[in-house]
Design goal:
It contains two helices and eleven strands; from the N terminus they run αββββββαβββββ. With 260 residues, the protein is mainly beta. The chain has an eight-stranded antiparallel β-barrel with strand order 1-4-5-7-8-9-10-11.
Length: 260
């Protein structure tokens, strides 16, 4: 009968080497996460435009303003980016009050029951330094499906207007089937294919949440000369609420059959 050999601890130099390796790995992960910066969507300058066939005569155009959410990304590694956006459907505008009400009604968007659409990214597929596909889950009218967004990265720089916040800009497009989300009323009048065009501005989260000062943000992407007041203006810690888009005048009501 053979007795098992007692297990011996690894030699001290080997143990030290393992500790050093673990420390280096931890520092590498910390450095990678430090490069990812959080941005908040600007609801004034973020707009979703949709186009859908109107009985085959034209593409009806509508917009939704006021989207909110967060974007975390590192311009040197887009694959680590994360996006979470909520779109307030009550802000939908087709240019006509009657059609707005009809679109938000129960047999279409049912916005009283489902007041928001939400998109949460699952992964980012880089195509070029300024182009990528954001794959994610879109929840609309209580139904969730994967929808890919084709995104163009426009700029990352200080905004030229007060409070001079570090701002990122993007343009995106996508297509979806409204029937896939249970929005299938009036198929002879309203097309199934919906084309989306999305314009996004997002400002770097302020100093209050522990992020670095904007002056230390990456300068590899379209650096602009800093405004003389950038480093001293206390407005840098305020939100960009001072500038609003002009409210377009409402169009006259058209005498057109309205979906029930």
């Amino acid at each position: 009968m053979t007795c098992p050999r007692p297990q011996t601890a690894p030699p001290r130099p080997l143990r030290r080497f393992a500790v050093v390796l673990a420390l280096l790995a931890t520092l590498a992960c910390a450095g990678a996460s430090a490069a990812t910066v959080r941005y908040e969507l600007d609801p004034v300058h973020t707009r979703v435009q949709f186009a859908v066939s109107h009985a085959g005569f034209s593409q009806a155009l509508g917009t939704v303003s006021g989207s909110t959410g967060t974007l975390e990304f590192d311009p040197a590694d887009w694959s680590s980016a994360r996006l979470d956006v909520s779109v307030p459907l009550q802000r939908l505008d087709l240019g006509d009050a009657e059609w707005n009400r009809a679109t938000l009604a129960r047999n279409l968007l049912d916005a009283q029951r489902w007041p928001e659409a939400r998109f949460v990214s699952t992964r980012v597929e880089p195509l070029a330094p300024d182009r990528f596909i954001v794959h994610g889950q879109l929840t609309l009218r209580g139904v969730t499906h994967e929808v890919p967004l084709e995104v163009t990265f426009n700029a990352l720089k200080r905004h030229p207007l007060p409070p001079f916040r570090r701002t990122a800009g993007f343009s995106a497009t996508a297509t979806l089937s409204r029937a896939a989300f249970g929005i299938d009323a009036w198929p002879s009048t309203i097309g199934d294919r919906v084309e989306l065009r999305i314009e996004v501005e997002a400002t770097r989260a302020g100093r209050g949440d522990g992020t670095q000062d904007d002056s230390r943000a990456p300068t590899a992407v379209d650096p602009d000369p800093a405004d003389p007041t950038d480093s001293t203006d206390p407005a840098d810690s305020r939100d960009d609420d001072a500038i609003d888009d002009a409210v377009p005048a409402s169009e006259p009501v058209r005498q057109e059959p309205t979906p029930a």
